[in-house]
């Protein structure tokens, strides 16, 4: 028996392994299986080169457990090791490398494993003792037994092992005893060993016998050694890709499309990516791409390897050029990772472009599911955005789809404003904004449907990217203001009548909101009253809501414009009623205002060139007195008009109609509106 110390100069290596090398201790099983796979693959390589002429036999890797004794055993029939190889590879190389790099990587210890052969020693994270029973494939090789109890001391001795290969026996510590349970092992195998390239057996297949499930003599193979991504695209059919998706996500809906990656230069990359049906929450969709290294599962957190927007995809990528264990900083700086990221982006864009060209009908049918993915890509990746311009679609309220160029041709004649800008009208809710949509369509305008999760941000990007283009929500203003033309309409009302209408309506406005009343010269057949919300303010508030309200706009109260149509018969008649019922009183007030206004204007002109500090107290007092008198007279006139409005049912009815058109009339106010409507019909 040989006894000795492992080749390290510090006994701190085992505590570091046990506590810091991995954030998830369950990784130990992946590392042990990876070594077993490597040993098996090496033997097959030797056989192909004629350096091993013996019988290959069954190369299945087998896992067994004893939950009571807290033991897991991983057995392979691979290349095996001689005593000299155990001493070299287990006792010396791994730990000398570890010792050398511990100081260098003390702030990022995780990066040591994988780079410097420490995978085997991850077993000590969960064990109080590890044993190796091994026999080399070489002629006349003798079996070897190695054991270590988590300190630099080890024992190495001959052992009568009948077959070539290696058995790793892991004696779990008390804290890790759950890993010896059958259910836990199955859970880890499902995660880490599902697609290992060598068959892995754990337990036996079962069959129904005598009213219960019993074990058979047949090994239960837990992995698929030849998953779809390892095959050539030419050897696969559409059904194979769908079946593989079900293998990855048994409960998932069928994907929209797939991309088969198969690159061998200047880096190695294989995989299959799927476009899933994305519903509402983007975050739910992430962590669905699985990263493998030679069919060994690495992680499903691939943000550092693929661009942010591609994390919405599902599927598998496999590259031996990405080590099993890497730090975040390594990923950000590694040239191969950057090349892989760029390549995947290009492949995704090319695939979407091909589908669009080859089968536009299918592309349009799936657009509503693809839309959020493509928008996310265009918002976060400029290279993708440039490529996506060829296939990104705009959808209108009639359910028709257009490329940017196609839509420009559709609307340029009618929707170009006086400043030569192409105005894109859009809705975020066809039901709630129905009245405004119908009015726009009656004018020959087209309205886009932009009700997606990212459309608020996407509209901002389009306004930046598209030349001479603006986007305005269809209820952001009256149509004549949304798409302003050179010719302006005349009003049937005088300026005085228009001014009198403002306080009449202002006195009946809801208190839960800020309203600006204005009068516009619109078509007779346009609505008499419309309530709109500023495009800028609404867009800022929408973006604030998406960001959790963390900006100044999120805290501002809702502000609306109440627009009166000066040419609608109802408004014209209302203006006439004002003249008839309170015109005499208003005239007297105007006559009283006129001289005071004249005096105030004269004072303002006289003091215009003087600084405030140069005015005498007498001059300031005189100005204040005239200002107060003028304000009082104007307030008197406004109160008379407000009083008229409060007595006039039609005013409140028109306001409520505007609110109703915006889905803003609810509860008690809606009930009052219905009753008032009945009363007006009975008059």
Largest sheet geometry: 9 strands, mixed
Query: What is the spatial order of strands in the main beta sheet?
Result: 1-6-5-4-7-3-2-8-9
Intertermini distance: 113 Å
The name of the CATH architecture of the largest domain is 2-Layer Sandwich
CATH superfamily of the largest domain: Histidine kinase-like ATPase, C-terminal domain
Number of strands: 22
Helix content: 40-55%
Number of helices: 21
CATH top level class name of the largest domain: Alpha Beta
Radius of gyration equals 39 Å
- How many discrete structural domains? 4
* Poorly predicted runs of 5 or more residues: 96-117
CATH topology of the largest domain: Heat Shock Protein 90
Strand content: 15-25%
What form results from the Cα inertia axes? elongated
Tell me, rounded to a whole number, the average pLDDT.
Answer: 84
Structure class: alpha+beta
Domain Histidine kinase/HSP90-like ATPase: 24-176
Family: Belongs to the heat shock protein 90 family.
InterPro entries: HATPase_C_sf (IPR036890), HATPase_dom (IPR003594), Heat_shock_protein_90_CS (IPR019805), HSP90_C (IPR037196), Hsp90_fam (IPR001404), Hsp90_N (IPR020575), Ribosomal_Su5_D2-typ_SF (IPR020568)
Binding site for ATP: 31, 35, 76, 81, 166, 328
Topology:
Blueprint: E1 2-5, H1 13-19, H2 27-48, E2 61-66, E3 71-76, H3 83-102, E4 127-135, E5 144-148, E6 153-158, E7 165-172, H4 182-192, E8 200-209, E9 212-221, H5 238-248, E10 257-263, E11 269-275, H6 282-285, E12 289-293, E13 296-299, E14 314-318, H7 328-333, H8 335-358, H9 360-365, H10 367-380, H11 382-388, E15 394-395, E16 401-402, H12 404-411, E17 422-427, H13 434-442, E18 447-449, H14 455-465, E19 469-473, H15 479-482, H16 495-506, E20 514-520, E21 529-532, H17 535-546, E22 559-565, H18 569-606, H19 617-647, H20 649-661, H21 667-682
Parallel strand pairs: 2-8, 12-14, 17-18, 17-19, 20-22
Antiparallel strand pairs: 1-6, 2-3, 3-7, 4-5, 4-7, 5-6, 8-9, 10-11, 11-14, 12-13, 15-16, 21-22
Helix pairs in contact: 8-11, 10-11, 10-14, 16-18, 16-19, 18-19, 20-21
